[in-house]
From TrEMBL:
<dbReference type="InterPro" id="IPR055368">
    <property type="entry name" value="WH3_Lhr"/>
</dbReference>
<dbReference type="Pfam" id="PF23234">
    <property type="entry name" value="WHD_4th_Lhr"/>
</dbReference>
<keyword id="KW-0347">Helicase</keyword>
<dbReference type="Pfam" id="PF08494">
    <property type="entry name" value="DEAD_assoc"/>
</dbReference>
<keyword id="KW-0547">Nucleotide-binding</keyword>
<dbReference type="Pfam" id="PF23235">
    <property type="entry name" value="WHD_3rd_Lhr"/>
</dbReference>
<feature type="domain" description="Large helicase-related protein winged-helix">
    <location>
        <begin position="466"/>
        <end position="552"/>
    </location>
</feature>
<dbReference type="InterPro" id="IPR013701">
    <property type="entry name" value="Lhr-like_DEAD/DEAH_assoc"/>
</dbReference>
<dbReference type="GO" id="GO:0003677">
    <property type="term" value="F:DNA binding"/>
</dbReference>
<keyword id="KW-0067">ATP-binding</keyword>
<protein>
    <submittedName>
        <fullName>DEAD/DEAH box helicase</fullName>
    </submittedName>
</protein>
<feature type="domain" description="Large helicase-related protein winged-helix">
    <location>
        <begin position="689"/>
        <end position="767"/>
    </location>
</feature>
<feature type="domain" description="Lhr-like DEAD/H associated">
    <location>
        <begin position="35"/>
        <end position="237"/>
    </location>
</feature>
<dbReference type="GO" id="GO:0004386">
    <property type="term" value="F:helicase activity"/>
</dbReference>
<dbReference type="InterPro" id="IPR052511">
    <property type="entry name" value="ATP-dep_Helicase"/>
</dbReference>
<dbReference type="GO" id="GO:0016887">
    <property type="term" value="F:ATP hydrolysis activity"/>
</dbReference>
<dbReference type="InterPro" id="IPR055367">
    <property type="entry name" value="WH4_Lhr"/>
</dbReference>
Length: 839
């Protein structure tokens, strides 16, 4: 991508930072339709949760010009609407917090200030800004008009502030006078201190001349002006929404800022607008019940009719008391029944009669009523329909267009146009919010925000954080390491391998430590059968540049489902071809030309001795270039050369050894099409589906994920920031849950729903003193990362002993180390567990 190339090559940014910048700006452009430059200004307006609006001007001219523009425009708004606004200005944006009474065409804001009169407006605005008082005290102190020291002691700041106000009252009375006694603009006196203060404010703190030049360019049409009404703030607006007090143009404190009422939707993921949809069904139902009126008598039903505009007869019959109350209102001349179709009728209050008559011009009303004075203002059909839909949506949760139109007996196309107008105002949001929805739904924005809050709050309240020791007990149960959860039988192997999908461990540790620890009666042929069936592939995912001499038991190997190979191979960034010894290169070329071959065929075609071929295959395995149909091939390579035999079929410690004859065919690893990447990229760009699969795989492995837990995973996994976007989207869809599951761990945490239930059970279950020994290459080696203590090197032979989730003893380089005081029986048991791999 040219943009990433320029950022990395010209500016020297890291590839990850360059990608973040490009993604951020791409999403901003998607939201605004363009990006602001010094030749283009963009204004956006969106609603906040208080019902007011926020107006943001994206101006890339620096804080000095933006501060001047913000103060002057704030004063113009104040004079126009008679309302004091909150405003802030940063290096690249200005924000104004408007109330519900501010209504105006957005394009008019560009013409609120004129270059010929703007400076006088700025001066008057400046007099009310905190900036003037600060600069006044500075100049007065510098001019020695205010004493810094009295009686050899420094004047307290609060006293100096009082003295400066007294001095200002004597030279500029209007500045501190009661505003009720001031008519028109305040007249600035010809005083050197006042003049110097204004000059400092206009030309040091601000750049008034540069701002006036910008206004002249706007008036001359030299700058492109864009205005956008958005349903939510754009990514570029996030910074100014969170502006710090030094950017404020008024004296309202941070906790009282209207910007705190903005519901920030996640723009970190381009799919978040669609995936905001699948919310909790219970939350949708609850908000729908809250929105629908609960009338207790005829008067309250009349108020409900006025708020909803009208109700269908079928809706009224859903409550057994409503038909009688509606008839009572009709007899009193307060409501009427309008027949809008042959089989449909609407009940409406007399106050809404003038609204519905343009929509249903030929409809008959019983009883016939006349519009009340003050409610009989004529309206066009389109405007009336917009107002009716606006009123109706206040009583419902998310609904598709047909369900909105059907009770009103209106064509769906007309209702869709009205909804589009409401969407442009920011009143409604569109999406697939109900789980399983197959068409777009529409919901009033405040009701939708409430549904989303209910969903997240309910899910996060379902579990309290557990201590890290309890979390380790949970992991032992989740990964089938505790005695009560260990699995049994060859059919269970697929479940264990699926949970360890993509986990990188030493080749010699899979059948000596990882699999037997999770399966009580693990048999050596089981993994061979799983590989030969085509379901599982063993390989090294990220090879080395230079091959080692012969196979090593520490070669990192992963077990992967064949159907997901493309997703995992996309993680490994393209590396230059490894440097192979001559024999390994000959075997590689043979397999490249002939395809998959059995060991004997490969020996014949490569013209190598048996021992030479085994060494060459070991070197190719070590760099991740070849694998075999069966795990027996790798197992044979791991055996010492003296013990390798074509017909070896023996069981050692429960693991089936096998020979090269049982390996099946040897072939080059099929890595598929590499993930798209730019020439300067250090990491490939993953397909969203592949990234989601990897994120879910980590969740299946641990049940609960957070950044610190993944510290022991391979370094070629996607960075946490990319996984975080996926987890946010999955949480918004309702597939997983976010919250605080493990106490004492910083950062966001996410869990599978079934893991939450097990966490709750583990927290309630009292410790039983169970000791569990795991290899240092196991995913549960969390000492020094999640758990306190020094890290245990993840090499075969090192072991960790847990008791009720707490590290009890270590075995490092053959030397046991106790981490707690134990009695003799416990010490003996600990040594036995550390020394012997559990079967």
């Amino acid at each position: 991508m040219p943009a990433i190339d320029w950022l990395t090559d010209t500016l020297g940014l890291p590839d990850a930072a360059a990608r973040q910048i490009v993604e951020y700006l791409a999403r901003a452009r998607s939201a605004l339709g363009a990006l602001p430059t010094q030749q283009r200004l963009i204004m956006e307006r969106f609603f906040d949760e208080s019902g007011g609006t926020q107006l943001v001007i994206h101006s890339l001219f620096g804080s000095r010009i933006n501060r001047a523009w913000g103060l002057a425009l704030r004063k113009r708004f104040c004079r126009t609407f008679n309302f004091e606004l909150q405003a802030a200005a940063t290096e690249d944006a200005i924000i104004f917090s408007l109330s519900t009474s501010h209504s105006f065409p957005l394009d008019e804001v560009w013409r609120y200030l004129h270059a010929n009169s703007a400076e006088s407006v700025l001066v008057q605005a400046l007099l009310d800004a905190p900036l003037f008082g600060v600069r006044w005290r500075w100049n007065a102190t510098t001019a020695l008009a205010l004493p810094r020291m009295t009686g050899g002691r420094k004047v307290a700041p609060q006293l100096q502030r009082m003295k400066s106000e007294d001095l200002l009252a004597s030279v500029f009375p209007d500045q501190v006078a009661c505003l009720e006694n001031i008519v028109g603009e305040r007249e600035v006196p010809d005083h050197p201190l006042v003049g110097q203060t204004l000059d400092d404010c206009l030309h040091e703190a601000m750049d008034s001349e540069g701002w006036l030049a910008l206004l002249r360019r706007i008036e001359a049409g030299d700058i492109e002006l864009l205005a956008r009404d958005l349903p939510a703030p754009s990514p570029l607006a996030m910074e100014v929404l969170g502006a710090r007090p030094y950017a404020f143009l008024d004296d309202a404190p941070l906790e009282e800022r209207r910007t705190q009422a903005v519901l920030n939707r996640r723009w970190t993921d381009p799919e978040s607008a669609d995936d905001l949809g699948a919310l909790d069904v219970a939350a949708i139902t609850a908000v729908g019940e809250e929105a629908w009126p609960q009338a207790r008598n005829a008067d309250e039903l009349h108020e409900a009719l006025t708020g909803l505009g009208c109700i269908a007869e079928a809706e009224a019959q859903a409550d057994p008391q409503w038909p009688a109350w509606l008839n009572e209102l009709a007899r009193g001349g307060r409501a009427t029944r309008m027949q809008v179709a042959q089989d449909r009728a609407l009940w409406l209050p007399i106050e809404r009669l003038a609204l519905l008559q343009p929509i249903y011009p030929g409809a008959r009303c019983e009883p016939a009523l006349e519009s009340l004075p003050g409610f009989d203002r004529p309206s066009s059909e389109d405007d009336a329909l917009v107002e009716l839909i606006r009123a109706r949506l206040t009583g419902f949760g998310p609904l598709p267009v047909p369900l909105i139109a059907r009770p009103l007996a209106l064509p769906a196309s007309a209702v869709a146009l009205a909804l589009t107008r409401l969407e442009s105002e920011g009143y409604v949001l569109r999406g697939r919010f109900t789980p399983g929805a197959r068409e777009d739904e529409w919901c009033e924005r405040h009701l939708l925000a409430r549904i989303h809050r209910y969903t997240v709050k309910r899910l996060r309240r379902e579990i309290e954080p557990v201590e890290r020791a309890d979390f380790m007990r949970f992991l032992c149960d989740w990964q089938h390491l505790s005695e009560s959860t260990r699995m049994q039988g060859r059919d269970a192997l697929a479940t264990v391998v699926e949970q360890l999908e993509g986990f990188q461990a030493a080749a010699g540790a899979w059948e000596s430590d990882l699999l037997p620890a999770r399966l009580k009666d693990y048999g050596g042929t089981w993994l061979d059968e799983l590989c030969r069936s085509g379901r599982i592939v063993w390989t090294r995912l990220a090879g080395r540049i230079k091959a080692s001499s012969g196979p090593v038991r520490g070669t990192p190997i992963v077990l992967l489902p064949r159907r997901q190979l493309a997703a995992w191979y996309a993680l490994a960034s393209e590396a230059p071809p490894p440097e192979l010894p001559s024999r390994a290169q000959r075997v590689f070329e043979t397999l490249q030309g002939q395809g998959a071959l059995f060991f004997d065929e490969l020996q014949q075609d490569a013209r190598l001795l048996r021992g030479e071929l085994e060494d060459a295959l070991g070197e190719l395995v070590a760099v991740g270039l070849v694998n075999a149909d069966s795990f027996a091939g790798l197992r044979a390579l791991l055996a010492p050369a003296a013990k390798r035999s074509r017909s070896t079929r023996q069981s050692r410690g429960g693991a089936f050894i096998g020979g090269m004859a049982d390996a099946g065919r040897w072939a080059l690893v099929r890595k598929g099409t590499p993930a798209p990447a730019d020439s300067s990229a250090r990491r490939p760009v993953l397909d969203p589906e592949a990234l989601e699969h990897i994120a879910l795989t980590l969740l299946r492995r641990y049940g609960v994920v957070f950044w610190r837990l993944l510290d022991r995973e391979a370094d070629w996994l996607p960075p946490w920031r990319e996984l975080l976007r996926v987890y946010h989207r999955l949480e918004a869809r309702g597939d997983i849950r976010g919250g605080r599951f493990v106490a004492g761990v910083p950062g966001e945490q996410f869990a599978l729903p079934e893991a939450v239930a097990l966490l709750r059970e583990v927290r309630k279950r009292p410790p039983i003193g169970e000791m569990i020994a795991v290899s240092a290459v196991d995913p549960l080696n969390q000492v020094g990362t999640l758990l306190p203590g020094e890290r245990v090197p993840a090499v075969p032979g090192n072991r960790i002993l847990y008791r009720d989730g707490v590290p009890l003893a270590l075995l490092i380089a053959g030397k046991p180390e106790l981490l707690a005081e134990l009695n003799e029986d416990d010490q003996r048991k600990a040594r036995q567990l550390l020394a012997v791999a559990r079967r």
